[in-house]
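== Folding task for one protein ==

=== Format: two labelled lines per protein ===

==== Paired sequence and structure tokens ====
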Amino acid sequence: MLISEVTGSENQGTANELVDAVRDILSIYSADEQDNVDIPTDEFKAEVEAQTGRLVNIDTLLKAVEDSEFAVSFDKNSIRAKGDMSKDVNTDAEQTVDVGKMAGNQAMKDIKAEL
């Protein structure tokens, strides 16, 4: 067996363990309705390091977040769990439209146009 085969399988196991830890933590955040929508990346990194027992590089962490498919959006500042809405979703209430009134107005315009 080659050294690269041994280290390659060990690295794959570490990567899988990291993705599993990310999934676990993001699942907890998405299930907790009282929690903040945006998770600070530094705070999330500390939680992952505590769960895995090893230090994690920020780029490696973001790759694991992407691989986990449990996040809607993420960057070096914050992570948003998949159960939460994306940052770019407009949550403002839409104006209601009275369709009956609109139809009545259009009917009156059409009647006046014919006269």
Summary: Confidence is low (pLDDT under 50) at residues 1-10. The chain has one domain: 3-85. The longest strand covers residues 71-74. The first helix runs from residue 3 to 31.
